[in-house]
Design brief:
Elements: H1 3-28, E1 33-40, H2 53-61, H3 75-84, E2 88-96, E3 100-107, E4 112-115, E5 121-125, E6 131-136, H4 141-144, E7 148-150, H5 168-185, E8 191-199, E9 202-209, E10 215-219, H6 224-233, E11 250-255, E12 261-264
Parallel strand pairs: 1-3, 4-7, 7-8, 10-11
Antiparallel strand pairs: 2-3, 4-5, 5-6, 8-9, 9-10, 11-12
């Protein structure tokens, strides 16, 4: 056998082996199973996840069995799940080889509420600014103790349930304000209204507390969570009892010339 014939014979065998391996891999790594695991949800009647949520997640995800799991991009599946199930947060999708996907979900928690511009209904949002519900004004009482209002001057929403509100600046600031409030009170429902103001490069926020209509004015967005924590602390004693202060008291928190946070009552 000539060298040329040996080369082509060897080359043909190698190519055949590669094709066989690819065929085996394509068959072995075809998606067969998708399951769902709930990592966290509210307890009992507090949960907003409907009955049969696992089956609903699987159905709304529209996963395509038979596709090669090696190259399966699940981003579209996640979007479909999030849209169809407002209170679901897809934490992670993990590929378990050779042919299985597992979707890890948790329950989203309401955090903010925003009036529509016509003041006919409320948007209920979570910390990611996902619209969890749109609630008629007559039915808002069940949400007031679990959320605080962000002024619709800051968020003009026209989204539908399951959509995300696209305003990262306000979202980040709202999260810091909520962190400061919750860090001191463990209850963001103690706040009535938050309105943020931007004048040139100067930021300020007004936080209206439910207790005696106290108004907190925060100057500057640097160390915002700490400033809010300090200001809210001026309303409570060490045992978290509300201090006897006058109705409509204004509390201002800012940094002085030395960069120290000062609270003025």
């Amino acid at each position: 056998m000539t060298k040329r014939k040996k080369f082509w014979l060897t080359f043909s065998i190698i190519c055949t082996c590669i094709v066989c391996v690819l065929v085996i891999f394509s068959l072995a790594f075809r998606l067969k199973t998708v399951d769902v695991e709930i990592r966290a949800r509210a307890v009992g009647s507090q949960s907003k996840l409907p009955d049969g949520i696992i089956n609903k997640v699987l159905a709304s995800g529209e996963f395509k069995t038979g596709k090669n799991i090696l190259f399966y991009n699940t981003a579209d599946n996640v979007k479909k799940i999030e849209k169809a199930n407002p209170y679901v947060k897809v934490e992670q999708v993990i590929k378990y080889f050779p042919n299985k996907l597992r979707v890890y979900i948790s329950e989203r928690t309401m955090k903010y509420r925003v009036q529509d511009t016509q003041e006919e209904f409320w948007y209920i949002l979570d910390e990611d600014f996902k619209v969890l519900e749109i609630v008629n004004f007559d039915n808002i009482s069940d949400y007031v103790d679990k959320t605080f209002e962000i002024s619709n001057k800051n968020l003009n929403i026209s989204s539908k349930v399951g959509d995300f509100v696209d305003n990262n600046q306000i979202k980040v600031l709202a999260m810091q304000i909520a962190e400061g409030i919750y860090g001191r009170t463990k209850d963001i429902g103690k706040v009535s209204l938050v309105e943020m103001n931007f004048s040139g490069e100067t930021f300020s926020a007004e936080i209206r507390m439910k207790y005696r209509n106290v108004l907190i004015k925060v100057i500057g967005n640097d160390d915002l969570a700490i400033k809010v924590f300090r200001a809210v602390s001026a309303i409570y004693d060490d045992q978290m009892q509300e201090i006897d202060i006058a109705e409509g008291t204004v509390i201002t928190v800012k940094k002085d010339f030395n960069g120290e946070i000062v609270v003025i009552k």
